[in-house]
Specification:
Its main location: membrane. Keywords: Acetylation, ATP-binding, Calcium, Calcium transport, Calmodulin-binding, Ion transport, Magnesium, Membrane, Metal-binding, Nucleotide-binding, Translocase, Transmembrane, Transmembrane helix, Transport. Catalyzes the hydrolysis of ATP coupled with the transport of calcium. This is Calcium-transporting ATPase. By secondary structure, the protein is an alpha+beta fold. Among the domains are: about 120 residues, Calcium-transporting ATPase, cytoplasmic transduction domain A (Distorted Sandwich), CATH 2.70.150; about 280 residues, Calcium-transporting ATPase, transmembrane domain; about 160 residues, HAD superfamily/HAD-like (Rossmann fold, 3-Layer(aba) Sandwich); about 150 residues, Calcium-transporting ATPase, cytoplasmic domain N (3-Layer(aba) Sandwich). About 50% of the residues lie in helices and about 15% in strands. The chain is built from 43 helices and 28 strands. Strands 10, 11, 14, 15, 16, 17, 18, 19 and 22 form a nine-stranded mixed beta sheet that branches. α11 packs antiparallel against α17, α18 runs parallel beside α35 and α34 runs antiparallel to α37. It is elongated and about 120 Å long. The N terminus and C terminus are likely disordered.
Length: about 1050
Amino acid sequence: MSSSDEFKLYDCSSLLLNVTTSSLNKAQRRWRIAYTAIYSARVMLSLVKDIISEKGSQNPSVIKNLHHYVALDIESSSSKQLGENLLPSSFAPKIDQKRLVEMVKEKDSVSLRQLGGVEGVAAALGTNPENGIQDDDQEVIKRQEMFGSNTYNKPPPKGFLYFVLDAFKDTTILILLVCAALALGFGIKEHGAAEGWYEGGSIFVAVFLVVVVSALSNFRQERQFDKLSKISNNIKVEVVRGGRRQQISIFDLVVGDVVFLKIGDQIPADGLFLSGYSLQVDESSMTGESDHVEVDATANPFLFSGSKVADGYAQMLVASVGMDTAWGEMMSSINSDKNERTPLQARLDKLTSSIGKVGLSVAFMVLVVLLIRYFTGNTKDDQGNTEYVAGKTNTDNIFNAVVRIFAAAVTIVVVAIPEGLPLAVTLTLAYSMKRMMADQAMVRKLPACETMGSATVICTDKTGTLTLNQMKVTQFWLGQESIEEDLANRIDQSVLELFYQGVGLNTTGSVGKPLSGGSLPEFSGSPTEKAILSWAVLGLGMDMEELKQKHSILRVETFNSEKKRSGVSVRRKADQTIHVHWKGAAEMIVAMCSQYYESNGIIRSMNEEGRSRIETIIQSMAASSLRCIAFAHRQVSAEEMEHDDDSGKTHQTIKEDGLTLLGIVGLKDPCRPGVKKAVEACQSAGVRIKMITGDNVFTAKAIATECGILGPDYQEDSGEVVEGVEFRNYTPDERLEKVDKIRVMARSSPFDKLLMVQCLQQKGHVVAVTGDGTNDAPALKEADIGLSMGIQGTEVAKESSDIVILDDNFSSVATVLRWGRCVYTNIQKFIQFQLTVNVAALVINFIAAVSAGDVPLTAVQMLWVNLIMDTLGALALATDRPTKELMQKPPVGRTEPLITNIMWRNLLAQALYQISILLILQFRGESIFNVHERVKNTLIFNTFVLCQVFNEFNSRKLEKQNVFNGILKNRLFLGIVGITIILQVIMVEFLKKFADTEKLNLWQWGVCILIAAFSWPIAWFVKLIPVSDKPLFSYLKRSRIIFTIVKQAIFHRKPFSSRLEAGCGKN
């Protein structure tokens, strides 16, 4: 039909156009405007069609359908470009983006209908609902330029200057700066600018050095955490482009993409429902409403970024991305908090506070003693003259001396407060996070790093974690007959057709076109779906495209880990018959069947004997470590599909009884190489492994035995293997009694997994749980450490977890356990090292101040010690890698003290040695070495620093006597020790005025090194001394309790009669 003929159908138009507006009422005028708009649009489209037909367009059929849609905004272009753009695969006009964004945000169904529905929007966006957009980089870039990228604006990361300024907020640093300023002023006034700046300037330089190094460390960690955050947010999304299903980064998603959604997925952008079944969405993250929202093509086709798919599956058309989505707006206003305090950091904060209070007390006493000695004339200057003479010493000298004394006291506080502890924790956590990333584990929540080191039980999945998750159909039973080869010819055509329906239409997977150059089709979906589809296409000769054309899907029941089955009802177009198909766990599907097919197409009744034989077949397959999947069928009428609910409404349901068994396939999923060794490593570390699986008990036992979870001495009645329903039906007391024995739980639901976690925690265990499904989220959250799977895990599971195992491998779980223990041990090493310095520095300064009226270490020297101890020490000791020894110890309990008796033994021995040596040097150094006081003080400073350098080696091993084992592997440690020694030589030999030191000769250097090196044999012998496992402070608590009881008995004694009444329960 030509354009002129088509318009003759609308002769009423001349009537409407000729009517004068004065004769029309308000409603008629509206109709006239509406008609004019439609008329104009049709005329424009007719012109377009004429232009394209003149140019010889090869695709005129597309134009015939265009009158169903309203174009949003078409750019002016040449006729040739317009003809090309009308092809859905490349059609990308500039559309009214704002209107589209608002329509989705506001759930504006009216606007959507005006645009021709979802299909109209897809056409306007140049998207083919089946094939998606073009698989072309230029296309993607063009769409990103037009509609924006799928990223949101985050607050800028903190810069280096922020951390420098943050470090200056420390009270002790501010006090030191004030002291430095005063010392600088008085020094210049007293000695002139050329000589007087040394003391004050030195303190300034030392303080700035400490601040910059601390700020640099924090800045690096901030950048590291930001990098890990970007990686954790980089979700993989499945889309179709150019007719091919593929996974892309969420950041590469563009408007017009067709996204595949399944249970557990996070919706990656705002969009519209294209097609799918039983889709329910959890929008609680957006709206706060906990009820799931049903999404379909008619009533509610709107999908929002940040929501989660709770049930069903669908294809979504992306309508807006990034900052145009409500989720993007919300996330851009949230500044993620990197200052999350881990449990270990909280314990260290208390320790730091306690040590700080002791340091403050010592510093205050030193301040008081030095002031008293100064004002009583008991201190002398460098020339041996009394510093203070009442009425003679001028005010400037007095003020200068007081400032110097005050600076010395404040410096003691600086050294005493172990601000390096938080830095050490941050460093070791950041370092371990980076290394764990390389070992296929991504840490999402910092506390998990250290908590994993305390794990006593790991509850693990089977599929993909202990096994490779590379499914392949290795057995096929039709009725009671095993069919191994020439499948398509040995099965009756009617049965084969039903198999095609059961496999090809009851699936979330898909069969794509062969990749370029390949002859085999591309299969997508879960490993199970891909294996069955591959078997059906290559073994049974199934044609997926033809199958879909011959049938229409009526209703879908999606698979989840609770039901362990999926169902579909389809209508065959040829004869309009309705067929129901179920697929799932073999014994569950068989229980729904009353008949079974034979290969010749004959249907047999499933009597007790037949059922028993089929169950035996399933058990023998399962005992061979095969996953058994059964298929069942039933033909039903339309009336049988309908079901009335409580409210009287009629719904379609899928029949679950009276089915006929089609067949059973056995899928082989081999164990991962190295998994048995990883299980044994965990068991030798005192960590129990429990396998929780949805497979049947025979498959579970076979895999558990293969992996080493069940030993060769396993007995059937030992209670080590249970089914989920059995565990669920125990009484609470029975569960608590038996949970420790259980090693394998088969046919479990997510609720059973949660129940086991809760029971284990009640027994005092620290529990780690692996999970991949949406329904695993409660158990992952409940566990002390939730471990989700990076490949098979849903986004809901990943969000609920603490650590993502990127390769889904149990060996990586064992690696995480090793790193968790390493973090804890590294912190303990640093605490031992730092407390040794703290104790030694405080005692030496206090005794020297009280007895001699002066501290042997100046403010600058103390700040240098502080730098070695805090920053460089933390870097050296917090970056040790895990060793095999860590997996030979029992796990650290929840209440185990941070500073163990072994650590107290080591640090007290070293501190006593350092105190003894340095006090001898303080009081007898001048006579022993025949040197003056400044050289003596330099010897004390040099020996003290070198003692810390040698003690760093001792701190590498808390229990082992050989502290050099594996030292060559830690180049960072050796580098820091080397840098420390070089800087110390520079401080002593070249920065005399800055560090207030004197040059030492080779003999004096040799003596200092010899004294410091003597700490090695001391550490070797001290580690031979046995210590009690009972915490040191428990004795003090016990003494306090006894003292309290005695005190109460003496001072609060009651008459005998009143105590007797109280004991009998009388008031």
